[in-house]
Amino acid sequence: MIQTDLNCDMGESYGSYSLGNDQEVIKYVSSVNIACGYHAGDPATMDTTVQLAIKHNVRIGAHPGLPDLNGFGRREMKLTPSEVYQLIVYQVGALNGFVQANGAKLNHVKPHGALYNMAAKDKTIANAIAEAIYHLDTSLTLFGLSNSELTKAGEKLGIPVAHEVFADRTYQADGSLTPRSEPNAVLTSEEAAMTQIDQMIKHQTVTTVDGKTIPLKADTICIHGDNPKAVGFAKQLYQHFISSGIKLGNLS
């Protein structure tokens, strides 16, 4: 039986603003990435989401992003390596406080949005993120775009790394995600997403927007909790895994 991990970004509500349907989506995933208060989230949401993850016995990850609430962390910023390092330490430490207070253990760290995409291509940023995780806890798994500079940085330091792929995003010839500013960045057809996931998991390849087939590692699959159709898609993907003989479980 093939085994994989299905992760989802959660805890992205803030103050009186509610985003996503975490309580339903969490039923169909094996890992969650919880916003740490910079691109989204706040102390109350972080605490509540950690408790929700414990209730459903899913692995808990920190989802640190750029300090950009208005842009939801999806706008690039010019940062020094020291600033990137400090952003990661600060946010992961904040979430881990709630994890420990609730008697659980932090499993992984996955950068969010623009920070994630910047680290996929920029060695300097990738190294700063990996070093922050290394200094915080060498048992934490670094989630990064498959075959990216971020996963390479983590592997170089010897920390656990999970190569991440996306169920609902399209890929460029260099293995990067198609920018959200382009019209074909997201797969709107659930059938197309299922086909892509099968290819990624079973063959460790993906078909790019220009029709090429490129290799990629697929340790964990991301779905987006802020999508209006997130619950239905998560449930359909979960059922697809069951019918295809694919088990959700530990990354190892």
From TrEMBL:
The record's annotation in InterPro entries points to: Glyco_hydro/deAcase_b/a-brl, LamB/YcsF/PxpA-like
Reactions performed catalytically: 5-oxo-L-proline + ATP + 2 H2O = L-glutamate + ADP + phosphate + H(+)
Q: What SUPFAM superfamilies does the database record attribute to this sequence?
A: Glycoside hydrolase/deacetylase
Report the function annotation for this chain: Catalyzes the cleavage of 5-oxoproline to form L-glutamate coupled to the hydrolysis of ATP to ADP and inorganic phosphate.
Which CDD domains would you find in this protein's record?
Answer: LamB_YcsF_like
On subunit structure and binding partners, the annotation says: Forms a complex composed of PxpA, PxpB and PxpC.
Pfam families in UniProt: LamB_YcsF (PF03746)
Q: Which NCBIfam families match?
A: PRK05406.1-3, PRK05406.1-5
Gene name in the database record: pxpA
* EC number per UniProt: 3.5.2.9
PANTHER family found in the cross-reference section: 5-OXOPROLINASE SUBUNIT A, UNCHARACTERIZED PROTEIN YBGL-RELATED
Q: Which domain of life is it from?
A: Bacteria
Similarity section = Belongs to the LamB/PxpA family.
Q: Report keywords, A-Z.
A: ATP-binding, Hydrolase, Nucleotide-binding
Q: This chain belongs to which protein, by name?
A: 5-oxoprolinase subunit A
